[in-house]
Design goal:
The protein is α+β, with helices and mostly antiparallel strands. The chain folds into two domains: about 170 residues, FAD/NAD(P)-binding domain (3-Layer(bba) Sandwich); about 180 residues, D-Amino Acid Oxidase, Chain A, domain 2, CATH 3.30.9.100. It contains nine helices and 20 strands. Strands 17-13-16-15-14-5-6-20 form an eight-stranded mixed β-sheet, covered by helices on one side. A six-stranded mixed β-sheet has the order 8-2-1-12-19-18. Helix 2 packs parallel to helix 6 and helix 8 crosses helix 9. The longest helix is centred in the C-terminal third of the chain and has 21 residues. Bound molecules: flavin-adenine dinucleotide.
């Protein structure tokens, strides 16, 4: 274990493991990752891996023989529009699948082990309680046991529950989600659905199969204190959309909730020598809740900026990290527009008309009637 690691990373989820892995790829040797959990650990999440996430996993060398082998393949995910029409994505013919679904207990352990195998020191069961400030900069982190780890750079990769480690002024949309796992006999194969019911928009509900017989169903709403609304929406998802995927489904796991920090505004990712990656930087998408690809991408860019900083001593290298993430996530500007337009009935109709003419989509005439 390096006594004075160059970089301390708080959290070994996708963003922390990605940062650690890419730092080692850049030749930074002294990388210490601290996570309060012991792996494998659960993380409430749909586990949907977009093509972007799959590309990042491929870069980390865990796609072919790990993730793609363990995950459920979804070549034809579909969206239910507020009109009730279902639009299916057209299957692609390259190595990546339109969507994979992998339980986070499995995915995060694969990523954590990859970073460790590459040379990162990862300590499990160690909770960071605060960033230690000295002379206007961050000197390291303090753990719940009072131990202090000093570092040249600290990366906060602690996810949605990292409020006390976040910089002043960082704002994001807080969503809460509720999900449950259901088991039964499969009806549809190779599909998953994202439901933009008129009553749900701009949030949505999902039915993501983790295997032929186990399906994860969830819903999200904006703001806190919405337990009743979440339960009502989950009921709609289970009675109306789950039967298309599973026959005679029964709950295989209790339903639980979790917050999500999301924003289309990419800021407050750098605070002196502290960098924020993944959901600690509010990089989840407020509309789709996708956060894994952004966690992996931001970890990769943070690593590049830190490596340049450690090589040159130029503080501007750390500052450049935020701009690089902005460039890579420039589709957020388009998604913000989609989220705004979906809120209006006329906007949703317009969006559906546009999607129907896009070669990426196959239109299914089966309609889901309003309840
Ligand atoms: C219900 C739900 C459904 C979702 N569905 C999807 C989906 O289908 N696809 C998708 O792409 N995204 C989805 N997301 C978003 C996705 O889960 C997150 O954006 C993603 O996990 C962010 O990764 P991360 O590494 O930043 O944080 P996390 O995955 O939350 O990892 C943070 C890590 O930090 C550790 N930690 C926290 N605090 C401390 C501390 N003080 N000290 C030490 N360690 C600490 C935790 O133990 C954890 O291991 C969903 C989220 C929710 C809530």
């Amino acid at each position: 274990m390096p006594l004075n690691p160059s970089v301390v990373i708080v959290g070994a989820g996708p963003s922390g493991s990605s940062t650690a892995f890419h730092l080692l790829e850049h030749g930074v040797q002294d990388v210490l990752v601290l996570d309060k959990a012991s792996f494998p650990r659960d993380k409430l999440c749909g586990g949907g891996l977009t093509r972007k996430a799959q590309q990042e996993l491929d870069r980390m060398g865990v796609y072919d023989d790990k993730v793609a082998t363990e995950a459920y393949h979804v070549p034809k995910p579909y969206i239910v529009m507020p009109s009730g029409n279902a639009l299916y994505a057209r299957p692609r013919e390259d190595k990546l699948t339109q969507m994979l679904v992998l339980n986070r207990r499995i995915l995060d352990e694969i990523l954590m082990r990859r970073a460790r195998q590459r040379g990162a020191e990862i300590r499990e069961g160690v909770e960071v309680t605060e960033l230690v400030r000295e002379d206007g900069r961050c000197a390291g982190v303090r753990t719940r046991d009072g131990e202090i780890f000093s570092a040249d750079v600290v990366v906060v990769a602690a996810g949605a529950r990292s409020a006390r480690l976040r910089p002043d002024g960082a704002r994001s949309v807080e969503l809460v989600a509720l999900e449950g796992r259901y088991s039964g006999e499969p009806i549809e194969h190779g599909t998953a659905c994202l439901v933009f019911e008129e009553a749900f928009t701009p949030q949505y509900g999902w039915v993501f199969p983790e295997s032929e017989k186990i399906v994860n169903v969830g819903v999200a709403v904006m703001g806190r204190g919405k337990a009743k609304e979440l339960r009502a929406r989950l009921k709609v998802m289970v009675s109306k959309y789950l039967p298309r995927h599973l026959g005679e489904a029964c709950v295989s796991c209790r339903t639980t909730g979790f917050p999500i920090h999301a924003s289309y505004k990419i800021d407050h990712l750098v605070d002196g020598n502290v960098l924020y990656v993944g959901e600690a930087g509010s990089l989840a998408d407020p509309l789709t809740l996708e956060g894994i690809s952004q966690a992996l991408v931001s970890g990769r860019h943070a690593a590049g900026s830190i490596a340049a900083y450690l090589r040159t001593g130029e503080a501007s290298c750390l500052g450049a990290y935020q701009e690089t993430v902005r460039r890579e996530l420039r589709h957020f500007a388009y998604m913000r527009w989609v989220a705004a337009i979906l809120k209006r009935r006329s906007g949703a109709r317009l969006l559906e008309a546009v999607l129907r003419r896009t070669p990426k989509w196959l239109v299914d005439e089966k309609r889901f009637a309003s309840p």
